[in-house]
Amino acid sequence: VMNHTASSHRWAKAAQAGDPKYQDYYYCHDDRTIPDQYDAVVPEVFPATAPGNFTWNEQMHKWVLTSFYPFQWDLNYRNPNVLVSVLSSVLGLANLGVEVFRIDAVPYIWKELGTNCRNLPQVHAIVRMLRIVLECVCPAVVLKGEVVMAPKELAAYFGTPEKPECHMLYNVSIMVNLWSALASGDVRLLKDQLDKLNALPENCWFVNYLRCHDDIGWGLDEPVEESLGIDPLKHKEFLYHFYEGSVPGSWAMGELYNYDEASKDARSCGTTASLCGVERALITHDKPLLDISMKRDLMMHSAMSFLRGFPMLSCGDEIVQLNGWEYKEDPDRVEDSRNLHRSPFNWENAAKRKQTGTLQKQMWDGLKSVREMRDDPAFAPEAWVTTWDAHNDAVLAVVRHVEGRTVLGLFNFSSARQIARLDSDGDIELPAEVALEPYQVCVVEK
Predict the structure, then answer these.
(1) Does residue 90 sit within a domain?
(2) Where residue 387 sits, what CATH number does that domain have?
(3) With helix as H, strand as E and coil as C, how does 377-437 read?
(4) Domain ends where: 74, 89, 121?
(5) Which of 351, 375, 399 is the last residue of a domain?
(6) pLDDT of residue 154
(7) Could you tell me if residue 143 is inside a domain?
(8) So what's the pLDDT on residue 102?
């Protein structure tokens, strides 16, 4: 975790015990002078559940910078001892055999009064130093950056081919746009985001996914929404209410996270299967809904896996893991609705993936087909990947082309039958028309 440690970390414990060396590992202030200057400019990460950027520590009698939660203390990278200690930690773990480091909350690690303390140049200098050290000592180790920022900010975190930073980044914007397209049956925002990411330099590689341990934050591209005649706030409200299951016609079962009454902002929680309708179908014994929900789930995984980059499965997706509502009975977990999709892996259900007629086997076999799809030469790293106009806002069309071979992926994001009409162009020869059933995936090889 690049940005902070827990307040129970040994460095923070030493700081609280009065050790000035470790107090300088953090941002500790005797009064509100600096904190007030900071708060006047820097936005809050969680204004509803963790308002303010500083927390009073009674033991030290100091204000501590806590951008995320009061128990997470921001590290002070102005102190070179912090960078050296973090590098030592990384190398120690690499020496134990760790091959991939997910570096958390990277955009926040440098603080500068008078700025919003996001994506500052010093951040990239620090990540670059981390990459240089790893290249020298353990060059096979991979840096995977967690950068939850607008697409225009992302390319900088890869660095350049001559001065690289992260090897890959989480593709947060595509996760959000996939779920937006599913709820609305409209792929225009998703297509726009894919076009922007596909236009990034060749050294920009993303980890694509549907769900992770965190929430779905509805950070859509508002100017693009407005250009399409979509009201950004109303669309966001529709989405988070849809995925909590409170919109008429919604199949989803989830919960809100960090709802803010003033801004009407909220995020969404839930497992992939539950957000796709499987849980509601099982509870209501609705076989047709169950069948269509499983098609939704597999279509979403197929679409995600067809995109440029590396597909990542959230643990449990492969066995149709449902929401873990039992977290509400645990006083230590009930305050954080993200625990809805953080329940233990269900090993009993995992065994069912080998039993004919179970949902688990259906999903396991469906994902096997996705893996087989990706064995095609058109999924090589050097493949050219682009969206294509299906002349239908409910259908996402993606073309992969390499060495004279073309593979077309068509994904129906709606609950109705759709027709995709495709134009051939130069070396890319495509079928003129393809009919798609609700949530159908069609892969055409040319």
Answers:
(1) no
(2) 2.60.40.1180
(3) HHHCCCCEEEEECCCCCCEEEEEEEECCEEEEEEEECCCCCEEEECCCECCECCCCEEEEC
(4) 74
(5) 375
(6) 85
(7) no
(8) 94
Q: How many residues does the chain have?
A: 446
- Alpha-carbon distance 181 to 166, whole Å? 29
| Contact yes or no for 170/309 (Cβ under 8 A) | no
Q: Which of 117, 86, 105 is nearest to 9 (CA)?
A: 86
Tokens of 208: 């694509």
Q: Which phi and psi angles does 268 have, rounded to 5°?
A: -125, 145
In 3-state terms, what secondary structure has residue 216?
strand
- What does pLDDT average to over the chain? 95
Give the domain range for residue 41.
Answer: 4-74
Cα–Cα dist 298/46, whole Å? 33
Burial category of 427 from C-beta neighbours within 10 Å (exposed 0-12, middle 13-18, buried 19 and up): exposed
Inter-axis angle of helices 232-243 and 172-184, nearest 10: 80
Residue 167 token pair = 């090897």
Percent of the chain with pLDDT over 90: 91
440 token code pair: 């159908």
* CA–CA separation, 389 and 314 (whole Å): 30
CA dihedral (238, 320, 418, 311) positive or negative: positive
pLDDT tens, residue by residue, 217-265:
999 999 999 999 999 999 999 999 999 999 999 999 999 999 988 889 9
Phi, psi of 292 (to 5 degrees): -70, -30
Compute the distance between CA of residue 388 and CA of residue 444 in angstroms, rounded to an integer: 13
**CA 306 → CA 107, 287, 413, distances in Å?**
28, 29, 15
CB 432 within 8 A of CB 403: no
Please, are residues 323 and 344 in contact by the beta-carbon 8 Å criterion?
no
Q: pLDDT digits over 176-225, tens only?
A: 999 999 999 999 999 999 999 999 888 899 999 999 999 999 999 999 99
Q: What is the pLDDT of residue 371?
A: 95
How many Cβ atoms are within 10 Å of 232's Cβ, its own excluded?
A: 15
Residue type, 249: G
Please enumerate in sequence order all residues whose Cβ is within 8 A of that of 135, keeping only pairs 6 or more positions apart, or say none. Answer: none
Cα separation, 312 vs 318, in Å, equals 11
Q: Would the pLDDT of 48 be above 80?
A: no
